[in-house]
Each structure stands twice: as structure tokens, then as C-alpha cells.
Specification:
Helices cover 14% and strands 37% of the residues. The chain is mainly beta and 278 residues long. It has one domain: Acyl-CoA thioesterase, double hotdog domain (Porin, Beta Barrel). Strands 1, 2, 3, 4, 5, 6, 7, 8, 9, 10, 11, 12, 13 and 14 form a 14-stranded antiparallel β-sheet that branches. A hairpin with a 5-residue loop joins strand 13 (252-260) and strand 14 (266-275). The longest helix has 13 residues, at 40-52.
Amino acid sequence: MEQPTSRFERDTAVARVDEHRFTATIDPGWAVIDGAAPNGGYLMALGARAMRATVPQPDPVTLTAHFLSPPEPGPIDVEVEPIRTGRRHATVGARLVQDGRERVRLLGAFGDLGTADGPDRMDRPPLTLPPVEDCVDATAQGLERSREGGFPAPPILVRFDHRWPRHLAGWAVGSPVGHGEMGGYIRWADDAPMDTLGLLVVADCYPPAVFNTGDASLGWVPTVELTVQIRKRPAPGYLATRFTTAAITRGYLEEDGEIWDADGDLVVLSRQLALASR
């Protein structure tokens, strides 16, 4: 087992049972609602930690998860299937199984982003966010509202230091921006270093972008499938993020994400398919 040095590493730690089987414990501190199912990005990171233990490459350059049924906090098994190991990438599958039931199916390619070399080109415009000091401390506000008797702060919220631009933070107090967008600055609450496994959680840790449309009829937004592509190991400092939803079709919606590091480099692109329930 890896020796954890941060809350995230401790809560995604895995223990090897045999060559391709691991055990882990789902921590309740990564749920969107206290006592509910854990966050999907957290489950991806937990599975990816076991997957990378079976291959020589350390970084998930792309990982896709299909969420089959929500697990509960407590013990879970990770069954890893190495598919192919090449010079640059290793392809790996995994199943997260709890109480004899498969909960999440993962398929990913792992590489070494520390030694990656090749051409660079960027036609995607960088994010334009206000300075961190001008943003809302969404973590502190969530805790304060909870202490004053409001909606309890989501457990996963306090795992992070969230700083949201004011125009994107209004949805939480009844003033949505009017279109599907979320984002801002983010880092671990304990200021631990962010690695490529942590980026999997960042790609899924915001409230659904569709909540900022102002459509009060929208409720729970469960993820069907999530793909996270990681381009680079992030530089230290706040990450800058943007997540958008542009279309809902008979209850299905997409959410596209981009994450940039403190050096201004694009480190993640993500897309998920989710359901808009009423």
C-alpha cells in the first residue's frame, strides 16, 4: 500500500490482495450530500490508484467511467484488468465491486506525463477569471450557511478551497447567471500538492453547470458516463476551471469541462453525460 500523506491520498488508498485485486474503503467525506453516495470523480481516482499499481506508467491520460449503481461508504473491491502495455501507454480496465455487485466500470490509458514530448499548439482561448482575491470563498460561505441552520455543506465541498467568480456564485442564493456554467479557482483545502489522480476529482467536484440556468424544475443530476483527459501534470497553485452545459435533450445533458494550472497551461478536458431529473 502507498503511504498516504494527505487527506486525498488516505481516502483513496488501496491494499493489494493479489496481482490484479485490491481492497479500499470509500470515505463518506466525498459525498455531494451527507450520507449519500460518493462523488463519481472520487470513485474514479480510487479505481485509478489501483489501476496504475499494475502498470509502469503513473498518469491516467484518459479515463472513462460508467456508473452502474451507487456504492455506499465502506469496503469496496477493485478488480483490475491490464489489457495492453506498450512503450508509451498502458491500457487498463477495472471494476469497482461492493457486496458482490459491480458499481463502476473503468477503462483508461496510462502514460508518463513527466517525460511526454511532442508538438504543442493551443487555439483554445485561456480562461478569463477575476483575480482570486475578488472571488467568493464558496467553501467558507457553505460552512457558514450550514452553521446558521441552512442547507448542510456538502462533504466534498470542504475537501477543497473553492473560489468562485461572483457572477457564477449567485445560483446558491437564488440569483443564477441564466446559462449552464460553473467554475472558478480550486485547490485542496489542506493545500496538498495536486497530482493527476486528484485532477479526476476536480473534473467532477462542482455543482452541475445546469444549476446556473435558473430552471427551478431541475433536481438531481446523476452522471451516466464521465471521460477525463489529462494533458499535463499541474503546476503548484490554484487551478482555474470552467464547466458548461449547452443542451438538454429529453432529459439527457452534456457537461464539458476545462482545467488550467497556475502556469496557464491546459491540464484537463472532460465530458460527461448526465440525466436531468425533475
